[in-house]
Structures are given as structure tokens and as C-alpha cells.
Amino acid sequence: xxxxxxxxxxxxxxxxxxxxxxxxxxxxxxxxxxxxxxxxxxxxxxxxxxxxxxxxxxxxxxxxxxxxxxxxxxxxxxxxxxxxxxxxxxxxxxxxxxxxxxxxxxxxxxxxxxxxxxxxxxxxxxxxxxxxxxxxxxxxxxxxxxxxxxxxxxxxxxxxxxxxxxxxxxxxxxxxxx
Length: 178
Known about the structure:
With 178 residues, the protein is mainly alpha-helical. The protein has helices at 3-19, 26-32, 39-43, 47-66, 74-89, 93-105, 112-138, 141-157, 165-175. The protein has one domain (3-175): Tetracycline Repressor, domain 2 (Orthogonal Bundle). It has 9 helices and no strands. Helix 1 (3-19) packs across helix 2 (26-32), helix 1 (3-19) packs across helix 6 (93-105) and helix 4 (47-66) runs parallel beside helix 7 (112-138). The longest helix has 27 residues, at 112-138.
């Protein structure tokens, strides 16, 4: 990927994450990325193409930096989910806010990469729960995902310092019926 395209996408994610989807214009991305006027539109001819590019970029970035570890115990799962929430509500908070905003604003076809990313995460959690606690635990995937999502949203919108580990530990132990 060209450095101009990458700079534009990084700036676009930050714009959406800090100022909302309506702030996403070619000119604002150029300015935020310190690019010459028209640079972003050279890579994304329309606003729809820009939104689609940002969504794909977020999904690719999340897969890349997830660094999903091997999970062999409830404590491993608790540590992995805690780390993910810390990163997504801390240094990557603008990207997380952008993902939420785009989920709400984009049409189904445009949001497809984010939905696929989400399905992949659900499959990962489902597999871990099955391995650690069998079919009854696997059935708790939605519960565990909703708990993690709720905590992440709470940290982004209400209390950026809300404790993570105790909440995730309780949810994991509940899902595994421990």
C-alpha cells in the first residue's frame, strides 16, 4: 500500500473516531494527513469509496494487531480479553469509536468487512469456550461477547478507567460455569 493511501486511511480513521462520520470528507482527510489537496480523492474517488476503504482498513488493522494468543485456560482467556479491551479503549480508542460509528452509519454491503471481522472474533471465542467447557460453554459465546462489548463501550463513553479484569473474569467463569 502506498504511504499516501495509508496516511489518508489513518487520518480518516482518526477523523471518524474523534469527530464522527459526517466529518469524513476528502478535504478534511487531506488536511488531517498533511497531504496535498486532492490526494485522498486520487485513491478514493467518492465518499462511498472512502467510507468503504476506511471500513476495510479498520478490519484489516484489527486482525493484524489482535495478536490472538493461544488460549489453554480460563486465565489465558481472561488475560487475552482484558488486553484487547485495554488496547481498544486506550491507545486505539479513536479507531474503536470509528468502528462503532461506521457500524451504525454504513449500509450492509459497505460494513461487510467489519461484520466478517466480528464473525471471526465470535468463532474464535466460541472455539475457546468449547475447548475449555464443552458445548454448554460454547452456547455462552453471545453472553461473553456482549459483556466484553458493553465494557468496552462503557470505557469509551463513561469511565475510561473502569476495571476490566474483574468483569471479564466473572463473565468467563459464568460462561464456563465455574
